[in-house]
Amino acid sequence: MRRFLTSLLILTSFVSFGSHLAGGDIQYKYIGDSTGIQRHYKVILRVYRDVSGIAMPTTDNITVSSGCYSNINVPMNLTAGSGIVSPTLFDCVNPGPNVKTLEVYRYVGYVILPTNCNNNVFWYSNCCRPPGVTNISNSNGGGNDGFYFDAFLNNLNGQNSSPIFVSEPVRAFCVANPFNWKQSSVEYDGDSVVYSLINCREGNYPTQTDIPFDFGFNKNQPVTSTYFNINPQTGQISFYPTTQEIDALSVLIEEYRYDSLWGVWTRVGSSSRDMMISIAYNCNSVAMQGVRYDSTLYPTDSITGFPYVDVNCGDSAFTLKFHIALDGYSINDVDFRLTRIQTSQPYAITKIWSNVDVNYETDSVRVVVYTPFSFAGDYYLYSKKGNDGNTLMNKCGIEMDEFDTILVRVGPCPPPPPPDPIGPIDDIRNGEEPEPAPDPRQVVIPNVMSPNGDDKNDLFIIKNLMDWTTREVTIMNRWGQMVYYNQDYKNDWNGGTLSDGVYFGILYISNNGIVEEYSFDLTIVR
Of 265, 286, 307, which one is at a domain's C-terminal end? Predict the structure, then answer.
């Protein structure tokens, strides 16, 4: 009976403002430093609406309550650009009867608080949630559950801005794929933040109540999923949905400030976000392709059938762009291996990185090699499982096929410079032939070393190496990772801390216009 009366009161108070709401969040930002007005705050209200519901108004209200003064109603005005469907909502699934189409509305208002207080609460309440929500009974029965979300402020020891949510608030997912959903925020004051999952709520402050979940669901497991976790430091939600459904859930960010006088952490602010997500049986066809190179940028090589990218000689990095955004958490420095076709030897990659957006997603990665490309020709770049146990993964949880290959074409490279004249320059000017320099002797590269301290074969010594002026040595492990490099090698390497095993090396030498490159295997036995 109590829940019926509460719902009836909310309906009576707020039905003109909209229904079929899908969630929202509220935040505040201190602006008194720029306006010169003490305790002057900007308030940001975002409301997410199912398109099948009543239209949202151009104005709305939030309330500020505390134990230090009477309630303050804050008028909120709709901002330009509101009312559009979330632009990435259908990246993974197609629109349909089991996937809610959600619009995002943003309101802004301003308030001057009358005094400092340790329990200022900015709150918003409305009705109603749409029918068909799986994990809440009343929504399944007719959509009578309401909304309540808030932001907390303790400004007794200084003014404060709440954490501001910046990642996208609404998403659609598909069954049987792993997802990472980042609840990114901006914290303007340098305070520490902690993320947690809380109950969805309804009613008015201070008598708001938790909305009970159906059997099998709770605030920490709001989705039918193999696992459901939130990282308290980053706000990353990780889960693996197993059933088609529509679910409500809520996230809280709390911020703490260190009091050096008392040596304690004080809770100075918070912000909550109420959300609704759709989970479909299948991803759409674009997402199900996994991670694919953008076909509009990379043509296909007629001989190998692989896409190819052109790289200039001297470059030490190149960019790869993909047809759908990647999950930034899946990017790993060993997700690719690069091999020079001419020598069939690995070419060392030092870094795979990208600029991710506020959702921790990106459409491209940057491949950084250890030494700039100096030899024209083709290289194979193929995908590998990284240290996280998977290849690159798109935002919909679909992996890139292992050994998926793109051709890297390097060139053209300039010819080597002509040899320096040998002999006194005056002899050349007088028409005399300079004395020819002796050719450097052929090097002999050992295939084993035993750095065990017995003064026998402890060093990696290449015979006749010192006849050459350029002596560049690169040693890699069997995964193509560089473990040793010296651009002026002098037969003085003792294997360092490398363990026993087989390693792969490249020797680049030159002298008087003679350039040679060798690939070799090296076994270390201690």
Answer: 286
Domain boundary at 236, 271, 286, which? 286
Tokens representing 284 are 């759409």
Q: For residue 412, give the amino acid letter.
A: P
CATH, residue 359: 2.60.40.1220
pLDDT digits (tens, 9 = 90+) for 416-437: 666 555 455 545 555 555 556 6
Contact 500, 525 (CB under 8 A): yes
**Distance (Å, whole) CA 374 – CA 342:** 13
The distance of Cα 206 from the centroid of its chain, to the nearest Å, equals 38
| Angstrom distance (rounded) from CA 196 to CA 487 | 51
Nearest to 220 by CA among 233, 239, 244, 246: 239
Q: Is 384 exposed, middle or buried (0-12, 13-18, 19+ CB in 10 A)?
A: middle
Does 402 share its domain with 320?
Answer: yes
**How many CB atoms are located within 10 Å of the residue 58 CB?**
11
Distances (CA, A) of 231 to 152, 251, 312: 21, 11, 42
Task: Classify residue 416: in a domain, yes or no.
Answer: no
Q: Which domain holds residue 515?
A: 442-524
CB atoms within 10 A of CB 516: 14
Does residue 437 belong to any structural domain of this protein? Answer: no
DSSP string, 119-180: -EEEEEEEE-PPTT-TT-HHHHHTS--EEEEEEEE--TTS-----EE-S-S--EEETTS-EE
Residues 275 and 306 in one domain: no
Residues 339 and 487 in one domain: no
Q: Residue 269 to residues 4, 180, 254: CA-CA distances in angstroms?
A: 33, 26, 6
What's this model's pTM, rounded to 2 decimal places?
0.72
Residues 165 and 242 in one domain: yes
Handedness of CA 475, 478, 479, 483 (dihedral sign): negative
Count: domains in the chain: 3
Dihedral through CA 8, CA 14, CA 16, CA 19, nearest 10?
-80
Specify if 456 maps to a domain. yes
DSSP 184-213: -EE-TT--EEEEEEE--EES-TTS-EEPPP
DSSP three-state, residue 370: coil
Residue 503 has pLDDT above 90, yes or no: no
Digit-coded pLDDT (tens) for 370-411: 889 988 899 999 999 988 888 999 999 999 999 999 999 998
Say whether both 484 and 508 belong to one domain: yes
| C-alpha span between 459 and 526 (Å, rounded) | 12
Residue with tokens 């095993």: 501
